[in-house]
Amino acid sequence: MLGLWLGSISVQAGTVVVVNASNTAEISTSDIRNIFLAKTKTFSNGDPVIPVNKPIDDSVRSLFEQNILNKSAAQLKSYWSKLVFTGKAVPPRESETDEDVLKAIRKDPRAIGYIDEANLDETVRVAISF
Question: What b/e sequence results for 14-44 when a residue is b if at least 16 CB atoms lie within 10 Å of its CB, and e otherwise?
Fold first, then answer.
């Protein structure tokens, strides 16, 4: 029974939205939603932003879409199809792994992404956790 209980702890480790350690912009959940839905192209301080997504079949992405974007995968597919078709926006670029997301964020102070909290390191700053 203890093994089952401990196993559920790792599932509940959490997800964090992270930015470059040098990024000092204040970032709310609403800001993150607007960034990842292409409703804004800048951080609250006016600096340009580059959102980094995970692959469509990634469980962390599913949590992010449900908890931060408040949309299902089907809703997002429809949303992005419309924006791409009308030429208004393109979806965020994708990185395969949490390490790839971290590399992109370390490399570019404009980047923002989300990862499993278990893979967090000191090279990035946590904007929010959920």
Answer: ebbbbbbeebebebeeebbebbbbbeeeebe
Domains of the chain, by residue range, sit at 14-129
Q: CB-based contacts of 2: which residues, under 8 Å, 6+ apart?
A: none
Q: Label the pairing between strands 50-53 and 124-129.
A: unpaired
Taking only the tens place, the pLDDT of each residue in 55-71 is 999 999 999 999 999 99
- Residue pointed to by tokens 């879409």: 65
The reported pTM is 0.87
The highest-level CATH class for domain 14-129 is alpha beta
